[in-house]
Specification:
alpha/beta; FAD/NAD(P)-binding domain; 29% helix; globular
């Protein structure tokens, strides 16, 4: 007996902050469209459900990281992971999106057929999965950009000789007891600066071992201006004012950093010196690159600096020679001993949730494609994906991308089109790397990432206002979009 494959107007892949936002915009702006959200894991939340390491928190303020349509009400502007996860779950339930989610539906492959004018998705087998094949007319990928199964850990020489516990933050053991233990955290990014002050509360001593320093900025855990506005203005009005204020402030700081890097570097380092004292060696927070060549790390209320000043934490800037039985021998000859070593060494980039994709039987190679408006892929019909900002809150770009997709779907309905395919014209512009960003995880994935062009609409702008004008107000039809 032949099984009928369900056909949806839209399938959203991923039930994290991007997928929930996409589902909201779709059901609000395209109420007649049938859709489902496919989640490879067994719960909502994406990153905020996956990561369980101590102290996990946002590195953007929640008034911009939160949903535009559901105000963040918690007084904490820099929020802890469990609070963000609950906010995502509450949003999904409040708007009925939770009823549209199919859990344990990990997409292995998506194949487009011109003949059928739809995508066929192959779902990994699971005891809760009734259909291993689903079809959709439009595929919207909201699965993030990194490998959920494995983080990045370099091949450390001698790691097999170490007798203590080695753990990656992405695979955190919540039963790990680090009370009165010596801990080395390898890394200097957002995860490391979060772990250090949190683990220092219980550990005997925490070393943050870094090869290269990072720019670290202290911000208040609570936004006093936001709290004041919420008392004086209606909730929705206050939220929009706060959101736009923080957007403009972050854009202003970013642009200042790009135009006046030395001045901003001095400003950041003076703030650090004020918190740690003049005797502290500032070289541990003196990166060899300009501010915003990599993402800045935010610490609420200077908690990292407080842990260092108390002597509970120490920053060590050096290179690893090899692991020993007791810890790590550095190139300088110093040996750091520890009971636990945390490899906060970053993420592995993984596009499209790790699935393969085919168009008319031909496998898609992401590195051969170009990004149209930062959310569609050249030569991929009825396909969009979300990648947030590297210099601001992820959700800001996710929100704009979802609004563009609903505009596109409504335009296609109005004009009776069934297929929309972006076509990159190499004779009219040149290719560029997708991200002008010096982060290690970007460098490691350089050959896997799609490209961008050198002018609109193929340039990827890290600018909310430019994107808002392009994605919310520009015409849906242009010479690069092929409709059928």
């Amino acid at each position: 007996m032949k099984t009928t494959i369900p056909v949806y107007d839209v399938l959203i892949v991923g039930a994290g902050i991007s997928g929930i936002g996409a589902a909201y915009h779709l059901q609000r702006d395209c109420p007649k469209k049938s859709f489902a959200v496919l989640e490879g894991r067994d719960s909502v939340g994406g990153t905020w459900d996956l990561f369980r390491y101590p102290g996990i928190r946002s590195d953007s303020d929640m008034y911009t990281l939160g949903f535009s349509f559901n105000p963040w009400k918690n007084p904490k502007a820099i929020a802890v992971g469990p609070a963000i996860l609950q906010y995502i779950k509450d949003t999904a339930a409040q708007f009925g999106i939770d009823k549209k989610i199919k859990f344990n539906h990990k997409v292995k492959d998506a194949s487009w057929s011109d003949a059928e004018r739809c995508w066929t998705l192959t779902i990994q087998e699971h005891e809760s999965v009734q259909q291993t094949k689903l079809k959709c007319k439009f595929l919207f990928m909201c699965s993030g950009y990194y490998d959920y199964d494995n983080g990045y850990t370099p091949d450390f020489p001698g790691i097999e000789d170490y007798k203590g516990k080695v753990i990656h933050p992405q695979k955190w053991d919540e039963d790990l007891d680090y009370t009165h233990k010596k801990v080395i955290i390898i890394g200097s990014g957002a995860t490391a600066v979060t772990l250090v002050p949190e683990m220092a509360k219980k550990a005997e001593k925490v070393y943050m071992l870094q090869r290269t320093p990072t720019y670290v900025v202290s911000l208040p855990g609570e936004d006093r201006i936001a709290l004041s506005l919420r008392k004086k203005l209606p909730e929705e009005t206050a939220y929009q004012v706060i959101r736009w204020t923080n957007i403009l402030l972050s854009m202003g700081f970013y642009n200042a950093a790009r135009q006046f890097p030395d001045a901003i570097k001095n400003f950041i380092q003076k703030r650090i010196q004020q918190q740690l004292g003049q005797d502290f060696d500032i070289r541990h927070f003196d990166p060899p690159y300009k501010p915003w060549d990599q993402r800045l790390c935010v610490v609420p209320n200077g908690d990292l600096f407080k842990a260092i000043k108390k002597g509970k934490a120490e920053v060590v800037t050096d290179h690893i020679d090899h692991f020993t039985e007791k810890g790590i021998l550095l190139k300088s000859g110093q040996e750091l001993e520890a009971d636990i070593i945390v490899t906060a060494t970053g993420l592995k980039i993984q596009l499209l949730g790790g699935m393969t994709a085919h168009i008319n039987g031909r496998k898609i190679k992401s590195s051969d494609a170009h990004c149209y408006k930062g959310l569609m892929m050249s030569d991929a019909p009825n396909f969009a994906f979300i990648v947030g900002y590297t210099n601001s809150s992820w959700t800001l770009k996710a929100d704009l991308s979802s609004q563009y997709v609903t505009r596109l779907l409504n335009y296609m309905d109005k004009k009776h089109y069934e297929v929309c395919t972006p076509r990159f014209k190499s004779d009219k512009m040149q290719s560029r790397p997708l991200l002008d960003f010096d982060a290690g995880y970007v460098k490691r994935a350089f050959d896997e990432l799609p490209k961008q062009g050198d002018k609109m609409p193929w340039m990827v702008y890290q600018n909310y206002i430019v994107d808002a004008l392009s994605l919310k107000f520009s015409p849906i039809h242009d010479s690069y979009l092929e409709y059928k």
